[in-house]
Design a protein that fits this description.
It is built from eleven helices and no strands. By secondary structure, the chain is mostly helical. It has one domain: Mitochondrial carrier fold, CATH 1.50.40.
Length: 314
């Protein structure tokens, strides 16, 4: 299949669709771990135990269904978010240079740009998602109530109600840490692409198995998560609303971070990280493995179709 460089090509579209599909498969598989992470980050009264203990507590207190609360809108948002991210990243890679010109620094830059585009366009989806997932943990700063959240029938309904009751600006709550957090997928993609290039050069693209893609995806995400976790925790609190009586409801990124440091110490900024590390590594690893296999299958299918079309012409 002849490769065309550019932002609007079938190749870029395939990468985007494969990335979106891979992310849905991965998140659907490990969703309960994300529920544990959210609860540990937002529920100040829940002790930071290991992941299995928190899973057992949630099932005992609220039933098995609570582990999958809000899963459908999360998957919808993740699909849209990863489509935007993969499309922008691979589109810019195609526009900005040849494979021989690729480097870790270039990947970091392009992944950062893709991250900014993704954050600006999809932040409202994640604000509603955080609210839906945390129905049982209402914020005390007046942002919303359990009754309000329970009435969200989906993403669009949630966005409309938040805009009407709290103002359109609330849909972009937590966007500042999100913009800073583009460093997370940027670091992740930089490490992943560098490792993948090395493996392809050494063994050939067709020789790299899904398990290897899973492993390098896990390594890339682990490094990125450890570096950026405190910002992720603050972001979640800004989106959902906090429980701190002596902190203003409209506290910003810096004020929230300093407050947590003062009250809980450095460990307060890493509450729930075990669940986050476990969830994010497994999810990212499976996402990359699924993405690579889906993209490879589609490209081979397109190549086969093109060869068949050429034969028919002759």
């Amino acid at each position: 299949m002849a490769e065309k460089s550019g932002l609007f090509t079938y190749k870029t579209l395939v990468h985007a669709l494969a990335g979106a599909a891979g992310s849905v498969i991965a998140m659907g598989t490990f969703f309960p771990l994300d529920t544990v992470r959210s609860r540990l980050q937002l529920d100040e009264h829940r002790e930071a135990k290991h992941t299995l203990a928190v899973l057992q507590e949630l099932v005992s207190e609220e039933g098995f269904g609570t582990l999958y609360r809000g899963m459908v809108p999360v998957l919808e948002s993740l699909c849209a978010s990863n489509f935007v991210y993969f499309y922008t990243f691979h589109g810019l890679k195609a526009v900005k240079g040849r494979p021989s010109e690729q480097s870790a620094a270039r990947d970091l830059l392009l992944a950062s740009v893709a991250g900014v585009v993704n954050v600006v366009t999809t932040n409202p989806l994640w604000v509603v998602n955080t609210r839906l997932k945390m129905k049982g943990v209402a914020p005390k700063n007046g942002a919303t109530s359990p009754q309000d959240v329970a009435q969200y029938s989906g993403l669009l309904d949630g966005m409309l109600k938040i805009a009407h009751k709290e103002g359109v600006h609330r849909l972009w709550s937590g966007m500042m840490p999100s913009l800073i957090l583009v460093s997370n997928p940027a670091i992740q993609f930089m490490i992943y692409e560098a490792l993948k290039r090395h493996l392809h050069a050494a063994y050939g693209a067709d020789s790299v198995s899904g398990l290897v893609y899973f492993a390098i995806g896990a390594v890339a995400k682990a490094v990125a998560t450890v570096i950026t976790y405190p910002l992720q925790l603050v972001q979640t609190k800004l989106r959902h609303g906090h429980h701190y009586k002596d902190l203003p409801p409209n506290a910003g990124l810096v004020q929230m971070t300093l407050y947590i440091l003062k009250k809980y110490g450095v460990q307060g900024l890493y509450k729930g990280m075990e669940a986050k590390i476990l969830q994010t590594i497994l999810t990212a690893a499976l996402m990359f493995a699924a993405y690579e296999k889906i993209a490879s299958f589609v490209f081979k299918l397109l190549l086969s179709h093109q060869k068949m079309a050429v034969k028919m012409k002759h």
